[in-house]
Amino acid sequence: DVFYRELPKVELHAHLNGSVSSQTIEKLIVRKPHLNIEHSMTAIGKGQRRTLDECFQVFKVIHQLVDTEEDILMVATDVIKEFAADGVKYLELRSTPREEKNTGLSKKGYVETIIKAIQQCKNEGEDIDVRFLVAIDRRNGTEVAMETVKLAEEFMLSSGGLVVGLDLSGDPTVGHGKDLLPALQRAKNCGLKLSLHLSELEESDLLLNLPPDRIGHGTFLHPEVGGSQSLVDKVVKNNIPLELCLTSNVKGQTVPSYSKHHFEYWYQLGHPSVICTDDKGVFCTDLSKEYQLAASTFGLSREAVWKLSQQAIDCIFAPDTVKQQLRQKWVDLQPQQQ
Ligand code: 5GP
Predict the structure, then answer these.
(1) Residues in domain Adenosine deaminase (predicted)?
(2) E strand map for 31-102
(3) Which pTM was predicted?
């Protein structure tokens, strides 16, 4: 539907290597035929479901395909251009810096290459403001988490505002939030914004006390699904926006169906809820489709959808001047009769 494509949108929850389109995967497969990787191993198609654990296996396959600076540059520029073509005006991309001994890729080089891709797209005149969140993969433990925070701090100061924050993601069944608190607290103290995957499965409320600046998924926060009113109260009191990814949660089987997605709970509360893709490549979706799905599943009018995309501006990590620019853009693009 052209309305959803033309709707100006803000994307706040997109993992770089989960966002790689099938066209880009094709180019990577051609570069690395010896890996014997097929498309079916890198995406979860329509009607297919996997456990969250199986989804993490898919990322491993993609990581094999993306292991040089050259790959990262291509993947990042392709992903940015695809979001721009889908009507995304502001994008916060997140990715876990990886070191690859075989190709000489360093974590620093990893982040530098993504920043280069962002700058290249800007120079080419793409109509999209892109920022970067450095991701901590919780599987890698506390020491790596602290190193990652230091790397993010360095880039926050040197990237001219492109690195705005930190993401905590990775397999939620591995490790304890508590062990990551020192690293996350340090990040917060030095001015990095925090977007944490929280209550994707069950999770203590320790990390909520930081508090984070945004929450990824938050699937099991509310009492109907085994969370609690006190968790909800904390989220509401601190006004912590949620990043909600419908297709990802249904395909990853953390929610049973679209109509049972917790978007409805939070939307009805009037709590800031931002529709996001999570991994548009792996889950075969894009942000227009996600807005359309939310609208058709929960009966949102076009006016309500417009408002939803507009309110996402309040939740971005870039400074107020950027919010003002985006708000003006939404005014300029608003259809006359609504
Ligand atoms: P990358 O950080 O390599 O650019 O993107 C892939 C990584 O993002 C995965 O290895 C995983 O750490 C993280 N990720 C992607 N989707 C999800 C998700 O739905 N839940 C969690 N917890 N992590 C995810």
Answers:
(1) 8-329
(2) 88-95
(3) 0.97
The domains of the chain are located at 2-330
For residue 200 and ligand 1, the question of a CB distance below 6 A is answered with yes
| E strands, the chain, in order | 9-15, 88-95, 129-137, 163-169, 193-198, 214-217, 242-244, 273-275
ipTM of the prediction greater than 0.95, yes or no: yes
335 exposure class (CB count in 10 Å sphere: 0-12, 13-18, 19+) = exposed
Closest atom of ligand 1 to 278 CA is: 16
2-330 has CATH 3.40.630.30 classification: no
**Residue 338, pLDDT above cutoff 60:** no
Any ligand 1 atom below 6 A from CB of 19: no
Distance 246 CA to ligand 1 centre (A): 16
**b vs e for 315-330, b when ≥16 Cβ sit within 10 Å of the residue's Cβ?**
bbbbeeebeeebeebb
| Index of the ligand 1 atom closest to the CA of residue 279 | 16
Residue 86 to residue 40: CA distance in whole angstroms: 24
Q: How far is the CA of 316 from the centre of ligand 1 (A)?
A: 20
Judged against a pLDDT cut of 60, whether residue 258 lies above it is answered with yes
CA gap 218, 245 in Å, rounded: 10
